[in-house]
Hints:
Layout: E1 16-18, E2 21-23, H1 26-35, E3 40-44, H2 47-56, E4 79-83, H3 91-100, E5 106-110, H4 111-116, E6 137-139, H5 146-162, H6 171-179
Helix pairs in contact: 1-5, 2-5
The site of iron/sulfur cluster has 11 residues, from helix 2 and helix 4.
Amino acid sequence: MTTNVDIKSEYKPEGLEGQGFFATSLDKAVGLARANSLWPLPFATSCCGIEFMATMASHYDLSRFGMERLSFSPRQADLLMVMGTISKKMAPILRQVYEQMAEPKWVLSMGACASSGGIFDTYSVLQGIDRIIPVDVYIPGCPPRPEQVLDGILKIQELAKNEGRSRRTSPEYKAMLAKYGLE
Length: 183
Ligand code: SF4
């Protein structure tokens, strides 16, 4: 019995193609691998963390994107997801977690509290995590719905896919880190 299985590639980088071969640049191949193997570290402090749990669970199933391996150690994570209110007391811990992550790494700020302090415009709450660490993608909402979280993660994947391998050692990147007092 013959079966015709039509296998489709969801995404294929630009390259040269012929009978039995495909060639592309190393940057594109590395970007593709990185984008589809992100290991998130969930830094969840309050209600947005619950919404993230819903995103992980069977209905929304974050593992569809090859990202089911949550990391609770910064040393084995490359996507820092900050969800919830960050108090000024906690800010140095968040920064330490960021610093312990190896390059390349990305940061996703989920919800109004992490992005701007949200409704907590008080002396004790950090008014946005971008005051202490660089952020790649912001997800608006209080709380954002799981669809928004998935959309934010897809945007991180796009960044990872299109980032050249040399970006992290570029003078521009180092200058951006220097603004935060990071090396
Ligand atoms: S943005 Fe809203 S849902 Fe998220 S942590 Fe803040 S108060 Fe809670």
